[in-house]
Amino acid sequence: MAYMPLDKSKLHLDRSKMTKIYDLSAPWGSDTPLWPFPGVRQDLLFPRGQYLERFHKRTMTYTGTLHAGTHMDAPNHVLHEEEVDRPRNGYSLDEIPLEYCIGSGVVLDMRYLKDEFNAKWDAAGGDPKKFGEIWVELKPEHFEKALKKDGLEIRENDWVVVNTGFQHFWRLNNDKYYNYYPGMGPDVAKWLIFEKKIKGIAGTWGATDAPLWHHPLKEQMPWLDENYRTATGKDPTVEYPDYEPCHRLFMQHGVCTIENAGGNMDEVTGKRMTIAAFPFRCEMADGGFVRLVAWEEGSF
Question: Is the pTM of this model over 0.70?
Answer without folding.
Answer: yes
